[in-house]
Amino acid sequence: RTPLVIDTDPGIDDAVALLLAANSPEVDLLAVTTVFGNVGPEVTTANALRVLRLVGREDVPVAAGAARPLVHPMLHRAEEWHGGDGLGGQSGLLPEAVRAPEPVGAVELLATVLRGAERPVTIAAIGPLTNVALLLASFPGLKPKIARVVVMGGAFAGGNTTATSEFNIWSDPEAARRVLVEEDVPVTLVPLDLTLRCTADGPWLTALATGGTAAATLAKVMEHYRNRYLEFYGEDKAALHDSVAVLEAAVPGTLRTTPLPVDVLCDLGPARGATIADRRLNAPGRRIDVALDADFDAVKATVLNRLLDRA
Ligand code: BDR
Ligand code: CA
């Protein structure tokens, strides 16, 4: 099985991605670490604990990570997408967490997991990249223990937070630049361009609602998200962003990738947080695997199937 750690900011689609990981037989879920992002850090941590309880994985250690970006203060959260409680105003439907997070922080837990792992570990990074950047900067000797970092983030044809920028990258561009550009760990980037084509619609959510307790709860949580997509894009298509990255982490090769050098704009202008891929054959810079294509219907169906409780 693939040893996996998920670094996350739950977040509605993060919560769905955690259920997906819990239900994926290829995955050995070693830890969940949290980061500020969609909502504040206390809330993302509380939500991770609640979701793991909902999905019956209280054995998975949870550690709280970065409360703010590396360099600049964060100006914006994604509460309009995820609700003030990060779960579409429905967090009360999930069980209250009965345990506290680990007494160590996210970076320490990640380092401990990597050190103790027999095989290199995949990190699915589905929030801002602050924790991952801090891990690589603090424990460079552990890089060989990382199989790859599968990042949900980036946008090449227009953003969802600003005209140019995707939320996870925009939330901490300096951290993203470290991970995508400056460090030498293998990265698979799952950008908005792809995840906006892997979406949940009415029939998908109806099926989810009949798929057992955890699935039905998350179907209710997703209603808010679905309505937001309708308002924002005018289409009944709630993107499964984080689940797409977690599916790729669980089943490598689900997405079709192209090795490209990608840069991240870190200036404070209107394109802050933009990702730029260089498609010239002889482009300089290190290449990361950018997921630009997939069998979108198969991804949607596979995610749904895995979320359902077949007991
Ligand atoms: C990403 O931003 C967050 O709002 C989602 O959880 C996802 O990780 C999509 O841009
Ligand atoms: Ca997320």
UniProtKB/TrEMBL annotation:
<keyword id="KW-0326">Glycosidase</keyword>
<dbReference type="GO" id="GO:0008477">
    <property type="term" value="F:purine nucleosidase activity"/>
</dbReference>
<dbReference type="GO" id="GO:0005829">
    <property type="term" value="C:cytosol"/>
</dbReference>
<dbReference type="InterPro" id="IPR001910">
    <property type="entry name" value="Inosine/uridine_hydrolase_dom"/>
</dbReference>
<feature type="domain" description="Inosine/uridine-preferring nucleoside hydrolase">
    <location>
        <begin position="4"/>
        <end position="300"/>
    </location>
</feature>
<protein>
    <submittedName>
        <fullName>Pyrimidine-specific ribonucleoside hydrolase</fullName>
    </submittedName>
</protein>
<dbReference type="InterPro" id="IPR023186">
    <property type="entry name" value="IUNH"/>
</dbReference>
<dbReference type="InterPro" id="IPR015910">
    <property type="entry name" value="I/U_nuclsd_hydro_CS"/>
</dbReference>
<dbReference type="GO" id="GO:0006152">
    <property type="term" value="P:purine nucleoside catabolic process"/>
</dbReference>
<dbReference type="GO" id="GO:0045437">
    <property type="term" value="F:uridine nucleosidase activity"/>
</dbReference>
<keyword id="KW-0378">Hydrolase</keyword>
<dbReference type="InterPro" id="IPR036452">
    <property type="entry name" value="Ribo_hydro-like"/>
</dbReference>
<dbReference type="Pfam" id="PF01156">
    <property type="entry name" value="IU_nuc_hydro"/>
</dbReference>
